[in-house]
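Thread: Newbie trying to understand structure tokens

Hi all, I'm a second-year student working on a class project, and my supervisor (Dr. K.) asked me to get a predicted structure for one chain before our next meeting. I've only ever worked with sequences, so writing a 3D structure as a token string is new to me. If someone could post the tokens and maybe explain what I'm looking at, I'd be very grateful. Here's the chain:
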Amino acid sequence: MLSEQQLIELISGVARSGDPVATGIGDDAAVLDDGTVLSCDMLVEGVDFERARSTPWQIGARAAAVNLSDLAAMAARPVCLLAAFGIPAGFEEVAELAAGIASHGVPLAGGDLSRAGELTVTITAVGRAERPVLRSGGRPGDLLAVTGTLGGQAASGYTAEIVPRLQEGIQLAGLASAMIDLSDGIATDAARLAHASGCGGRVLLGRLPLAEGATVEMAASGGEDYELLAAIPPGRALPPWLTVVGELAEGDRMVMVDADGHPRDMAGWDHFT
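---
Reply by user tm_fold:
Sure, no problem. This is what the structure looks like when written as tokens:
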């Protein structure tokens, strides 16, 4: 089966680009010429969540959070959310689901409803950014730094609360040269940022800030932490809530390096492989 990246490349090949889209497929969100930022994510029962392990409120809150995290990675302020629900027979907690979506304090402005075999929640987040931060602005020598801790979702069985780093993303607008949110694990997402920036680089596994109960493997490959990974030019003062974990370099390969200096073959989450 094709990987997620291969599917994105196929879609990109037929997608229309140009005015008014300043930044299209290939970043955390699309950016229009007027600074509007748009992100869309879908959560599917049995793939992204299990109703037996999560309340409708938790499912809604999580669906909104992953979209708001995309806005954070672009240094955008949220404006509103749109929600589309695929509702299976017997599911009646639609108000609780919507309340979870609205729990982040961002207006839920509309959406769509349909029948479905499994519960499906699709969110579109709308934001605005004065200085959007793309994945493609990094340069060799830039430091790689993360917010928060990593591996907490994997350690919790993917039930921990997701807190989108909106304020941190906005604060990084004038500091970071490139940024991405860590949805699929730093082993995958650091490579995505480096590739978009035309660089290679390395992540030092021993420097990863581990969440309680997390292993290095969970932190690097577990995914769904939704922290921010920023590339920052050297010599700049860093806020205390960032942890430097590596750097960009010349080349085209992002390497995970263990405490003994040995490269580790690691990859993050892929829905399709």
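A couple of things are worth pointing out once you decode it. The two ends are 7 Å apart (CA to CA). The CA atoms of residues 4 and 270 lie 6 Å apart. Feel free to ask follow-ups in this thread.
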